[in-house]
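Can you give me the bound-state structure? Components:
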Amino acid sequence: MESIKYVLPENRMPTAWYNVQADLPQPLPPVLHPGTGQPVGPDDLAPLFPMELIKQEVSTERYIDIPEEVQQVYRQWRPTPLFRARRLEQLLDTPARIYYKYEGVSPAGSHKPNTAVPQAFYNKQEGVNRLVTETGAGQWGSSLSMACAFFGMECQVFMVKVSYNQKPYRRALMETFGASVTASPSVNTQVGRMILDEHPDSPGSLGIAISEAVEVAAMSGGTTKYALGSVLNHVLMHQTIIGEEVLIQLELADDYPDIIVGCTGGGSNFAGIVLPFLREKFSGKRQTRIVAVEPAACPSLTRGLYAYDFGDTGKLTPLTKMHTLGHNFVPPGIHAGGLRYHGMAPIVSHLKELDVIEARAEPQLRCFEAGMMFAKAEGIIPAPEANHAVRGAIDEALRCREEGVSKAILFNLSGHGHFDMQAYIDYQAGKLQDYEYPQEEVAMALAGLPSVG
Amino acid sequence: MESIKYVLPENRMPTAWYNVQADLPQPLPPVLHPGTGQPVGPDDLAPLFPMELIKQEVSTERYIDIPEEVQQVYRQWRPTPLFRARRLEQLLDTPARIYYKYEGVSPAGSHKPNTAVPQAFYNKQEGVNRLVTETGAGQWGSSLSMACAFFGMECQVFMVKVSYNQKPYRRALMETFGASVTASPSVNTQVGRMILDEHPDSPGSLGIAISEAVEVAAMSGGTTKYALGSVLNHVLMHQTIIGEEVLIQLELADDYPDIIVGCTGGGSNFAGIVLPFLREKFSGKRQTRIVAVEPAACPSLTRGLYAYDFGDTGKLTPLTKMHTLGHNFVPPGIHAGGLRYHGMAPIVSHLKELDVIEARAEPQLRCFEAGMMFAKAEGIIPAPEANHAVRGAIDEALRCREEGVSKAILFNLSGHGHFDMQAYIDYQAGKLQDYEYPQEEVAMALAGLPSVG
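Here's the bound-state model for the whole set.
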C-alpha cells in the first residue's frame, strides 16, 4: 500500500490570498498605541512596514491578488503536494484517511517563504533595499534571506543567541544566501545592551530579538524596514495559499476533512491551512473540527491570558490583543523545537475566543515519538515544530481506530527537519525531557502585562 | 526575471528504464572472476544480489519496465522538476539557456532513491528481508535505509569512519529510518579486522566499506543481500528515469541541450541524465556534447587507468574494466564532498574510451564558489558533489558569454546540501584547500592492479 500524491497543475495555483477579516463573525479588536491607548493608524506603522503591507494588515477585502512577480517566485516550488499518508494509516492500523500538505518542498524548507517573498517584493517596490528581522530556530530568517537574495536586497537577521550557538547550520544557510546574522541580545542596539547589562548570560528570546530588529528599522531613517515572520494579519493572509491549494487538491481526491490539525507558535502555518476552510465553515457550507497543537513548554493558547500585550520584550511594538505568556517570557532551554513565541496571532486568538477552534498542548517527547513514526512511514523527517501537528493527527487517527470510524484528517507538515537532526539525535539518545511551564511562573509573567485595553 | 519550472504531469512519468547496453557501438568488456580470469556467471553473483538484478546487469533489452510497486513509490516525489535557471543566467550575464534537473526533492535529498527503491523491491520480492551496504557521504545509505523502511526490511550500513564522525546528522537520518549504522573499518568483519590490525587509525574508504558489506552478505547464507549505490549497470539503468523525464520536459520547453554536464563519483547520476540523450545521439537524431566533471582530489576518469580492477579494497568483488585509481585508493581528508570512489562505472568508462563523452577534473574551491553563486541565484543549496556539475555548467555559460553564442546547457543537480553545511561553513571561513592527487601516488596505486584482463 503506497502513499498517494495529489498534484495541482500549475495553472490552477490560486492567484489571490484569502483575507479572513472579511468574514469574521466579530471584527478583531484594534491594535493600540502603548502611549495613548488609542488605535494605531498607518502613520504609526510607516517607519516599520511598506504602505501596501500596512493596508493589507487592516483590509477587509475578501481576496487580495497575489502580484505576478510573487506568483513567479512561488511557482519555483508551488503548488506544494498534498499526500494521503497510506503507509502511516497502515502503520497505525486506523480506518482514518490521513492527508498532509507538505510545505517543506520550498527551497528554505518550510512554509515561511510564502510570506517572505511578498514582504520582500512590496518593500522593494516601495524603494526599500534593506530588511531587518529576527529568527528563533531559523526557518523564518533563512526564508527572508532567500527572498532578499532573489530581489537583490540586503538582509540583517537577529538570531536568538541560544539558537545561534546551537544551530550553526541554519546560520550558515542564511549567510550562504548573503544575509548578515547577529546573535541576540547583541551590543548593536540599545535594547540589546540594556538586556546584556542586566543579564549578561541571557540566552535570548524571540521577544528580545524582535525588539532589536524593530529598533534598527526605527532608527534607520527609512532605509531599512522591518519584517515579521508570523503573528500579523498580513503574514497569516499570505499563508492562506496553503489552504486554498488544499481545497482544490481535496476536490481532486474527492474528499473533505472532518478534522484539520496544525501546530501553533505565532500561528501562521496553522492559519495558512485553516482559514480557507473557515470561509466554508462560516458560510455554513461545510463543518470541520479545527485543532491547534502547541508545545507544553510554551502554551500561549492553552494557558496564556487573552489580553493586550507587547509583541516584544523591549516594549517597542504596539499593543495587540492576543493569548500571551507575557512579553518577558523566555522559553526553557530544554525545549528542542521552535514555537517559542510568547504570544499568539491576534486572528488565531480571536478564533479561539469565539470557540471556532480548539487548542491543546503537547509535551515534546510525545511529539518526537510521532515524528519518528511519520519518518519511517512516509520517508520525510518533520521539523520539530511540525511534529506537534503530526502528534495531533496521529492521536485523532488512533481515536478513529478505537471508535471504529473513518474520518478524514488533514494536517499541515509545515517544514522538514534537515537542520534539526541534533534534536532527533538527542531524542533517540534519551536526552530530551518534557517540561511543563509552571503555573506560578505563568502568573508572575502575566502580572507584568500593560494595563491598557 | 524569474526562473521557470517545467512540470511533467504524473501520467507522463516514464514507465520503463532505458538500458544503454542495447545501443552501445561496442559491447562492454565482460566482468571477470578474479581466480579464473573467466567471465562471471549469474551463480557467482547470486550470493550477493537477487536474480532479477543479476539479469538486469547483463541484459541487452532496450527497455525494462518499472514495476508498478516501484512507480508508486517514485510518485511520492517524481516526476522531479526541470528548471530554467534564469536568475543564474542573469547573474552570469550570459546568453546561454541554463537548465537543471533537480533530484534533491526526493525525501532522502538526492537521486539515490531512484535505485534504492527498486533494489529493495526486487530483494523483497525474492524473499530477502535484510540488506547490507556501504556509504560515504551518506546519500546512498540514507536512501537505502528509507527504501528498506518502506518495504519493511532491515538495513545495515557500513559508513566510512571519517564521515561517520564528521556527519552525525546523516547517520541520525539513517537511524531515524530504522537502519543500523557501523563505522568502517569495523571489528565486525574479517576484512575490517585485518585493516584495523594494519592501520588502527584508518579513516576508512568506500573500497573498505564495500568489502565489509560484501563479506556480511556473502557469509549470511542468503538471509542478507548486498546493495550498491552506483557503478553497476543495473544501478545506472535505474537512474535513467532522470534523463527520460528531462527529454519530455525539454519538449515542453521546446528546447534541446547543446551541452549536458554531470558530476561523477561512481557515475550513476551522470549516467542517469546522460544515457537517454545518448540514445538520441547514437541513433544519429541529435547531437549533444557531454561533459563529466569529477573532483581533482579523486580523478578516476581523467587520471586513472582504464584497466581491470577490484571494486573493493578487500578484493572480494569480481574484476571490472573501468577507469581506476587502484582499489587501495584512500581520498585525502581535506576533500570535503562525496565522489570519493576509486573506480568509475564500467559504462561511463567505456563511453569515455569511445570518445562519446568528455571529462574534466575540478578543484573543490572553484566548485564551492559555483555552488554559492547558484544558491544565491536559485535559492537551493547544492550538495558538494553537485557543485561539480554547477561549476561545469557555469563555465560553459561563461564561455557562451565570451563567444557571444546562446547555447542550451543542461545539468543534473543531483542533491541538496542540507546535511553538508559544515563544508559551506568551512569554505566561507577560508578553511578549505585545493588538493591535486600527486602523479607519483597515482602511479604507485596503479602498480598494484591485478594482472588479469
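A couple of observations. The interface with chain B takes residues 2-5, 7, 9-10, 69, 72-73, 75-76, 83, 87, 105, 107-109, 146, 149-150, 168-169, 172-173, 175-178, 372, 375-381, 418-419, 421-422, 424-425, 428 of chain A (CB under 8 Å). The mean pLDDT of chain A is 95.
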